[in-house]
Amino acid sequence: MIKKIFISFLSVVIVISLFACGNKQVITANQSTSTGEKVYKIGTLQLVQHAALDASYNGFVDYLNEKGIKFSMDFQNASGEQSACETIAEKFANDNLDLCYAIATPAAQSVNSHLENVPIVASAVTDPAASGLCKANEKPQGMLTAASDLTPVEAQFDLLVELIPNAKNVGILYCSAEANSKIQSDMAIKAAKSRNLNAVEYTVVNSNDIQTVVESMIGKVDVVYVPTDNVISAGFDTVATICNENKLPTIVGEEGMVDKGGFATYGIDYYSLGRVAGELAESILVDNVKPGDIAVRYLSADDCKRKINNDTAKILGIEVK
Q1: Which of 54, 122, 139, 236 might form a disulfide with 260, Cβ 3.0–4.6 angstroms?
Q2: What is the pLDDT of residue 134?
Q3: What is the C-alpha to C-alpha distance for residues 148 and 56, in angstroms, rounded to an integer?
Q4: Residue 246 is part of which domain span?
Q5: 28 burial via Cβ count (<10 Å: 0-12, 13-18, 19+)
Q6: Number of structural domains, the chain?
Q7: What is the CA radius of gyration of the chain?
Q8: Which residues of the chain have pLDDT under 50?
């Protein structure tokens, strides 16, 4: 009887412990280790939870599973907090990882500064070299390589002109704390100028600023352009609500924002991006290629999709052909 009570108590403790792990979860391609095959230890740091970054994670895991690569995964979500990125990166530095997967530029910057000898694969990073993550995108030379989510800004502005031909003033909305967003904003300003559009930057420092900044755009711009910005994407419900109520169209960087009420995008598929990151991880773990010898990978035009929210189009009174 005492033995049965102890076993029952132990089971409850184990269940409670699993729920107490919070961000931590373990995924393995094959639970069996009886063959003696290597089980790679991977730590993932994701900046924040939103559709695009979640898809990048899922694509990465699915690719490794499909290739039969055995791994244990410690997944950590920083909930958009840079301080949390630093704390998690410090933890990973002591975990004897075989590889670290960093999703989004701030997450990559944190692990890159703390993990001296651990190979790093980053994704959802627009320009790794410009963000200080590597020497050059063609040959990183350090312990990090990446799958870039460089957005097709020119094609997105072609879409803007096609769908909103009378637009003259474009508000570019992004978070000033994200280096990747500033890079895209600079590209957007050039794209706007080449199409005789006047572009003005509207920046937030964090999610608390979104409502105030978006409301300040009403009556001043004809359309809002949002790049693949993590802070704005995570809080896009607020952006969509304000813009749609005021019949202000939004052209956005990725389809997750369209699903939340954005008007339209021509953007990359983040699930495909995650699979590319998985390919990079396979080269490092299985083929023993050094990260610094692997060029940053970009998705092709075939991995970009046009998507329009028809419900939003009706609210805006825009007829889409």
Answers
A1: 236
A2: 95
A3: 11
A4: 153-268+304-316
A5: middle
A6: 2
A7: 22
A8: 1-32
